[in-house]
Amino acid sequence: MIDRIRRAFGSIWPEFYRQNNQHLDPYFTFTNYRKIWAIGICLLVVTALVPLLVVTIIHYQLLQSSVDSELKLRTERLASNARRAVTYFMEERLNALRFTVNEIAYDQLTDPDHLAEILRNLKLGFGGLTDLSVIANTGAQLAYAGPFNLEGRDYSNQQWFIECQKYHFYVSEIFRGYRDAPHIIIAVKSFRPDGSIFFLRATLETERLIQTLSSYETGAHAEIFLINRSGIVQTPSRFYGDTFQKMSLPVPAYSPRTQVALAEDDQMRSILMGYAYISTQIANTPFILMVIKQKAGMMQVWQQLRSNINWFVGLCTLAILVVIIITCSYMVNKLYRADKAKAEAMALMEQSNQLATIGQLAAGVAHEINNPLALINETAGYVKDLFVLTEQYRRDDELIGYIDDVLDAVERCGTITRQLLGFARKFEVKISKVKLNEAIADVLVFHHKEAAYRNIKVHVNVPEDLPPIETDRGKLQQILVNLVNNAFQAVDNGCILDIQASPAGADKVCIVISDNGCGMPEENLPKIFEPFFTTKEGNKGTGLGLAITYGLVKKLHGDIAVKSKVQEGTTFTITLPIRIQEEII
Amino acid sequence: MKVLLVDDEKKFATMLAKRLTLRGIDIDFVCTGEAAIAKAGTQSYDVAVLDVKMPGIGGIELERKLKELDPCLKIIFLTGHGSKTDFETGSAEAACYLAKPIQIDELIKILREVTG
Known about the structure:
The complex is a heterodimer. Chain A is of the alpha+beta class.
């Protein structure tokens, strides 16, 4: 099971990754395909991904900068708008008081009924006013109109009154005062007919101001509130302190214009802080308008966008990597296969060259040996003749046996030299139409007796409609004789020899000779077509049979291949062209 | 049957001639093509056994010249090359080719065949 998984996993790897062709290594153009593959992948990854990543980073920065800028602009706009609203709120009411003291005589102002009438009109006209009172220069309240019982109060020690005396127009911060409710005092200084000073004072509801501020939609991560110049929170804040408590942020530095700054709050959250010192045309106010936006919250949409972009870039990167790896593997595999095919061709060519060279050498050696062999043969033959003719030696079987041994050895040497010569021989070629079934039958005629004696079953399967091929009958028969001889030597008694022929494509035929004999070890297969390679014990084989067969097949422009397994048998497959011409041989 | 043996290997020719003589064949031997032509000019032979490769006049050329002298002369080639196809004789007339080392019985059989 583990082996099966390992095999399945191994088959995923491209062919070059499992490269195991040590015998072809010298013929490969490139030696390290894994390195080529890795370099290719690295180069493509760098080429493809670096621009993508650089563009993504630049895009991030631009987007971030744009978002920051937009956020800052919006904060500034919001702060400016709110500032205008608060300023207008104060200015409107101050001007109303100013108009009142200018238009209405002091006597009428100090008349409680008339003052109540004025308060009612101001409420109708502007709203947000709680009460109205006239206060003397000494701090004594001269007249009062409003819902509280404040007649005759003395404000001389009140902080707001002391401040009020310094200016013509006055706006207080929000405070609780005598009635213990948050309110704002606005006051206008004026003069009696006798020249002494009095103040027209009004109390403003803070709810109206708070409503004005809360009318701005800020969302969950931003808020608008007022602080005074000491940093005391004046209107409710969700995050930075309760009303009348010190704000948890530092008081921003004075600026006549609306400002926006990047800061961190007490919980180390990054915030955008917009602020504006509220100041009307006729009076300063103690208020600072604060617009606080928590950056993380405001950037949620951007963060979501960035997350989406990250996913997209990640998936793109993954897709690019997969495509690069697949493409690289495919291309390098193609290159490897082409190189392997070339290496195999070169190895084959070298083998052929070696065969040819050895053949030529063998022919030369054989020819040179043949002449002394002939002399030994004739001399030994003559000595034997003399012995046979001489009465004294004719009956000496031992002596005659020795001479016969010499003659047998010479004959054997002659056989070897003839085979050597045959190996390198330039064959006379005679092209004729050959029917494969007839050629095979002719060859098997010589083996009928041996097959019958050894109980070897020979199966021949050649289709009747297989067309004759144009080739050299003699060489084809020699090929078949050699292979059939080989098979007969390889099989034990009772084995099977199978000979099949079939078309192989449009212009070739295939002859398969297989046996179920002893087979050959895999390591011997690359060498079996080499001259003098033999596995036969003793001196039974010259090692030239298959080398000659190989040369003959090549002469006929064919191919021969062998498959073999020990104890399972051997299969020779010969592929021959249907037609060859004499001149190309 | 009168046989002329031509082979540049003198010892081989001597031994072969002696063996054939022992077997009742009338044989002369020479070691060069020139000597063979001279011999054939003085005597008539039924069969000439020629080595293919010889210094001077080779077996192929010698065949042609001997045929000119006696068109009825039968020719047997001896070759160290193992087969007739290893040399291009240009002649289809040679009676037979024998590869060295030869079997004496086979040579005698062929001699008898070519001389009828």
